[in-house]
Amino acid sequence: MDADIIVIGASPAGLMAARNACEKGADVLLLEKKEEIGNPPHPANSFFKGMLDRCGERADPSYVVHYLKGMKIISPEGREIIVETPGYSIDKTKFDRFYAEKVMKTGVDLRTGIEARDIWKEGGEFAVITSAGTLRSKTVIISDGINSKIASLLGMNTLKHPEDIAWGTELEIRAPGLGKPEMFEYYVGNHAPGWKTTYAPRGGDNAAIGAYVRRCGKDATPYLNAWVEKFKQLKGLEEIEVVRKLSGGDPIVTIPGDYITDGIMVVGGAAGQSGIGYAMRAGQICGDVAADAVKKGDVSKSSLSEYRKVWEKEFKVEHYVGRIGLETLRKMTDREIDEMAKVFENEDLSFIHGSAFEQAMQVFTFMMKKKPSAMLKYRAFLRNK
Ligand SMILES: Cc1cc2nc3c(=O)[nH]c(=O)nc-3n(C[C@H](O)[C@H](O)[C@H](O)COP(=O)(O)OP(=O)(O)OC[C@H]3O[C@@H](n4cnc5c(N)ncnc54)[C@H](O)[C@@H]3O)c2cc1C
Question: Of the CATH numbers 3.30.40.10, 3.40.250.10, 3.10.180.10, 3.50.50.60, which one belongs to the domain with range 3-43+93-161+255-318?
Answer without folding.
Answer: 3.50.50.60
